Request: fold
Amino acid sequence: MLKDIPRKMQALASLSATLVAALLAACTSPPASKPETPRPAPMATPTQPATPAPTVQQTHPSSLAGTPREYRRDAARHLYERNAERIYKGRLPPMLYAIGVLDVELDRQGRVLGTQWKRAPTHAPEVMAAIEKTVREAAPYPAPTRMGKVVYTDVWLWHKSGRFQLDTLTEGQD
Reply:
């Protein structure tokens, strides 16, 4: 029995060395990875139809404005680009058909969350509707990346022809 002790210790030492070597090998070499298999698209359910994944993600510009007042200029430029044919060119006449002051709330992607009139041209409800429609159709606006979401205010200067200027980018008035 005493003769077996050195052999058992030798075997134990050999086994320990093998385990340590295996552990070290596992730590230094990356595990074999299986190639990823594409996951199937979710099945359509009666309450929620399956929507196809977008193939190309559309990007739009972002704004580096740090305050709503700074953002107002980016939003006004965006509105002018989207409505170039509706912008009144040159100096506005002294008498305008309507003037409205509108707050526009945007989320971090530049989508319109809501609008709130600070000074509504209530004598011209068609102008109010046209302004609100114009604001919503121009979305998405430049993403307000530094602020997250933003509420900005601009003054709409409406000519009787249906053309307009924003106070932020106005060419003035005669």
